[in-house]
Specification:
Length: 123
């Protein structure tokens, strides 16, 4: 096992190719150990170089709606009236703590995503 740090894109690309060759490794073998170590190195490199920004709360809600095939009317029981849902989704009104609790409980959106600050489109 000749494992070295991933320092640049070339190292990263080579490591990914090598990981692909190890994907059929059997459990409890040196190849599986190597695969696990290399995967950890790749994850660390990706976390440092390919950060994905966390969406603002409204984008998180819209994403979940898309995943679940929900329409605005489906949020009425979670957020309030149809007009309230529209105001929230158009960023004209901020989420309340009660709305955040309901969204988390019923749509399973992480609380951390819902509590992030975001700008409203109010004048």
């Amino acid at each position: 096992m000749n494992i070295k740090p991933i320092k640049n894109e070339e190292d990263y690309s080579q490591t990914l190719s090598y990981i692909e060759s190890l994907m059929d490794a059997k459990p409890n073998t040196p190849q599986m150990d190597e695969l696990e170590v290399l995967t950890t190195l790749v994850e660390a490199y990706e976390e440092q170089h390919y950060k994905i920004d966390v969406p603002d709360p409204i984008e998180a809600i819209k994403f979940r709606m898309e995943q679940e095939g929900l329409k605005q009317k489906d949020l009425v029981t979670i957020v309030g009236s149809k007009s309230r849902v529209s105001e929230i989704l158009n960023k004209k009104r901020k989420l309340t703590i009660e709305m955040i609790r309901n969204l988390h409980k019923q749509l399973h959106i992480p609380v951390e995503s819902l509590f992030l600050d975001y700008k409203t489109n109010c004048a």
